[in-house]
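## Example record

The block below lists the input lines for one assembly entry, exactly as stored, with component labels intact.
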Amino acid sequence: MTPAFSADGLIPAITQQYDTGEVLMLAWMNEAAIAETLASGHACYYSRSRRQLWRKGETSGQVQRLIELRLDCDGDAILLLVDQTGVACHTGQRSCFFTAMRDGVWVQIAEPEISPKALYPEV
Amino acid sequence: MTPAFSADGLIPAITQQYDTGEVLMLAWMNEAAIAETLASGHACYYSRSRRQLWRKGETSGQVQRLIELRLDCDGDAILLLVDQTGVACHTGQRSCFFTAMRDGVWVQIAEPEISPKALYPEV
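Predicted structure tokens for the full assembly:
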């Protein structure tokens, strides 16, 4: 078994809070991000916009301690079980999935736990 | 808010059992798959290998009743909360994520609940 990267060298990674089961985010990893995550014990992704490794929480302090890294049946998706410090989302929401389709419209179903300015004071 | 499809018209979709929180699988949707899922109340994906809509459970009977469809903060990932009938994985495992990295090696951490032959008797 080995991760099956797509043509751009990436694999999607689902990040889940290990004890509550909450799905926190979906991001992308390359081979180096997987290696760093396993070596450091903290989630590291590949930022498609910045085209570089993205050490989650390096700026905001909202790090994700790795509990377990899993691979799906055909190797083309990763599940990271983590212990999230603070919030996962850059908006200050605990999870990135705070928008739901209800009765045909998109509805915000949760509130930020912290302001983005508190997370990124120098941006 | 609206789904942000990639250049190939697809968006990754995480599927989670709504009550236990178990992450069942990751698949892909296009605009038609999202529309059909919302209209029918059962998960429909886009099969990248078969290049057509994939009505989950159509052959195996292992359907996924839609509880809620969510979108992430930047619109480029979907979270489907479903009620899974039987198993999500074509291998007969409840979840596709039954392989974990432990002490540097990939380990199978769960057993199939049903044999693939029972799921796909005519294959």
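Chain A is about 10% helix and 35% strand. Chain A touches chain B at residues 1-2, 12, 14, 16, 20-23, 25-26, 38, 68-74, 77, 79, 89-91, 93, 96-102, 104, 106, 109 (CB under 8 Å).
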